[in-house]
Specification:
Length: 287
């Protein structure tokens, strides 16, 4: 079995791309359903607490598998051949097969993005355990990025497993020594928590969500404590640029999770180059 796997090594990049397209299709489901599952969970919890009865609709199972995917407009079920990443979208001309309602371009774009990023991971790390961990990290970061951008939530159902997975990934020092991973998780959480606490003391406002602390803890667990300063610096830079490009108005809510996720992914792919670039930039600007 292992010999057979080794023979696939030369095809790491195309195989990763293909696996990425399929994973992207599943991520579309995660991105759409996890926030709905969260809200349904809260409603059920609140109603139970208040002694209220759930409606028949609220009692219906809703998870990543059930109910089956349907067109949101005409409720036509999605047929198996309509589930092929990117290809189905093109075959359907970007419209529902039954009622011709346009399908969001985001579905094929998430699939393509996942395919490309998985390929980059395989190109950088080859057919290795680090690459395998890398595709898991990439998939989780894509899901978190889109969910946070859509809803301003970074669900515990994704951030907490990402912390544990990062610690397991580095149990034998796959990416960084375990000590660095544990310190990364703790310092990642504490640094943003402290920053937020001080900000609240000074301004009386909450500047950031608790999900951001957990996401940085997860990135610390995967990438080690050493990269945290550069990671936060880069995430802030990406956040500022994104806010300017998207013309986010002052005081308007702005999701920081996508910036953290992007900075973390870039550091996973090219830590040396990025650290060198940040040091050069800070030096050149007189820090
Ligand atoms: Zn339809």
């Amino acid at each position: 079995m292992l010999d057979f796997l080794q023979e696939l090594a030369p095809f790491a990049v195309p195989l990763a791309a293909l696996f990425g397209l399929l994973t992207g299709s599943f991520l579309n489901v995660v991105i759409y359903r996890v926030p709905v599952m969260m809200e349904r969970g809260w409603t059920a919890f609140a109603k139970e607490h208040l002694g209220l009865v759930l409606t028949a609709e609220e009692r219906q199972p809703f998870n990543l598998i059930k109910p089956d995917s349907r067109c949101p407009k005409c409720h036509a079920p999605v047929k198996p051949w309509q589930n092929i990443p990117v290809v189905s979208y093109l075959l359907l001309g970007g419209k529902c097969g039954s009622c011709k309602t346009p399908i969001s371009k985001r579905y094929p774009l998430v699939e393509l993005l996942t395919g490309v990023l998985f390929a980059v991971v395989a190109w950088q790390y080859g057919w290795t355990v680090v690459a395998l961990g890398g595709v898991v990290l990439t998939a989780m970061l894509i899901a978190l990025t889109f969910i946070d951008a859509d809803t301003q939530y970074l669900p515990d159902q994704l951030t907490l497993p990402l912390v544990w997975l990062g610690l397991l990934f580095n149990l034998n020092g796959a990416f960084v020594p375990l000590t660095s991973a544990v310190l990364g998780a703790v310092c990642g959480y504490m640094s943003l928590w402290l920053l937020c606490y001080i900000y609240k003391l000074l301004t009386g406002k909450i500047g950031m969500g608790g999900g951001d602390f957990k996401l940085l803890a997860a990135l610390g667990a995967w990438l080690g404590v050493g990269v945290l300063p550069v990671l936060v610096f880069m995430a802030a830079l990406i956040g500022v640029v994104a806010a300017l490009v998207m013309r986010v108005a002052k005081g308007q809510q702005f999701a920081f999770g996508p910036s953290l996720a992007m900075a973390g992914w870039l550091i996973f792919i090219a830590n040396d180059k990025i650290t060198a670039a940040v040091k050069w930039w800070l030096g050149a600007s007189g820090f």
